[in-house]
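DM from R.C. (forwarded with permission)

"hey, sorry to bug you on a friday — could you get me a structure for this? deadline for the figure draft is monday and I only need the backbone to look sensible"
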Amino acid sequence: PTPTPKALLMAREPMLLLAVTDFVANSAAFTYFTAGALRRNISSDMLPQQFPLQLRTKNMGVFSPQLQERYRDQPMELHLWARRQPLVSCHPDALHGTLFSSVEAFVVLPNTTRVPVFLLNIDANVTGKPTITRNRLGGTVRLTGTPLPALCQAQGLPVLQVKRLETLLKFGLWLFGVPRANSECCPHSVP
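My reply, with the result:
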């Protein structure tokens, strides 16, 4: 359906007027998705040192003891991607989005071969709010919905402890993901 036009405010004083519609936001999401820009590989050396769980099989034994038994203290790698186009809706005070993502974990063997060990589909809701401070445009990002594993499949291993993995995922997103999005995407944001 064709979007209905909205009347924009008119003022006699100088001002910045920014109008974003669902159509514009979802077109941008579609473009990024189809271009393959919503993919990221994370290796153990990319995680902050203060992160409580490093990407090594000995650390992942909490979720699957058989992983540590089969691959003693090997580095791991995560491949993240959007499996569907993100959905965005515009509201007067914020942008709301739903992300449909997948994470596949690999063990990196000494000969650099990557062995897939599990695949996890995770959906999350986020909200972005614009802010203006001293003539600077910024914003904040926050999780509004609980990211829940929609599917957890161990490849050749017994089922992973999904609840523990979910807790770690929430902790990691709240501690590192959202603050990093705020600092990189919106460097002039106000908490």
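R.C.: lifesaver. The helical segments are 22-34, 57-60, 65-70, 162-185.
me: no worries. The longest helix spans residues 162-185.
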